[in-house]
Every structure is written in C-alpha cells, then in structure tokens.
Write a structure and sequence with these properties.
Layout lengths: L13 E4 L2 H10 L10 H6 L11 H5 L8 H6 L6 E10 L8 E14 L4 E11 L5 E12 L5
Antiparallel strand pairs: 1-3, 2-5, 3-4, 4-5
C-alpha cells in the first residue's frame, strides 16, 4: 500500500519558457484548425498578444520537470503497474508564447479501492505566469494495479 503520509507533499517547483515553435507543433499535432494557434498575425487579429497555448498543452509541460518521474520515485511506484486514470484542467487565464510558466506539483490524495487491488494517487499542479498570476490547475489521477488486494 502506498504510504498516505505523502498526501500534501510538494515537489520542487520548476519554470518553463513557452516557445512559439513548440506551441505551433503541438497545435498541428493535435489537429487545431483555428489559425490563432499557428499564425501570429491571426492570433493578434483575434485580440491575443501572441500565440495562445493550445488546449491540454500544459500537460505536456509537466514532462519538462527536472525529474518527470519524481512522484513515482518518491512513492516507490513500479511504472509497469501504472495507468493514467484521469486528467482534468481548470483554466484561470490565457498563456502565450514568450510567457514563463511556473509549475507547482503536490500530492493531493492517495486512496484505494477493491481491497487494495487498485490504488489511486491524485496530483495537483498549479501553474502561474511570470507575474505570479494563476493560469491553470491540472489534476492527474494515476492508478496502480496491485497483484493482490490487502
């Protein structure tokens, strides 16, 4: 069983500079048809100061952490038994190419179901911009499949 004393544990914050090329690439890869995500002139004509961050792109930036596996390492989780259970986004403000975003991750909850056969870890990531303004909250639920329930 995962040690529930880790509930509330925060990982080291990290910052990422939003590069226009990465935003364009992600927008194209995810089929964003709106040109505001790939064309600066279209973005400005729509009232944006630059290319906006495409939906769900912030999830990708969690892989820019100094150690993307820090939570897994901290909890001693075997990646072979992990499933991505859920991902939710709550947006507070737009972010744009050229912004620097800071990510603060913490373990929000740890619980089990089916007599321990399934364990769940909820990670909350709070994202703010270079002015300290909240941009988004990401909630990710990781599911751990155990061979036997306890």
């Amino acid at each position: 069983m995962i040690d529930k004393s880790f509930i509330g544990h925060s990982l080291a914050p990290y910052s990422v500079l939003l590069e226009a090329g990465r935003l364009r690439f992600f927008a194209k890869a995810t089929g964003q048809a709106d040109p505001i995500y790939t064309d600066e002139a279209a973005a400005r004509a729509a009232g944006h100061p630059g290319l906006p961050v495409p939906p769900t792109f912030l999830f990708c930036l969690e892989m820019d952490a100094p150690n993307p596996a820090a939570m897994r390492d901290l909890l001693g989780l075997d990646y072979r038994s992990l499933l991505h259970g859920e991902q939710r986004f709550t947006y507070h403000a737009m972010a744009y190419a050229g912004d620097t975003l800071t990510f603060r991750q913490r373990i929000e909850d740890i619980y089990d179901k089916k007599n321990g056969a399934l364990e769940f870890v909820t990670r909350l990531t709070e994202v703010s911009n270079q002015r300290g303004e909240p941009v988004a909250e990401l909630r990710c639920v990781t599911v751990i499949r155990n061979a036997k329930g306890n």
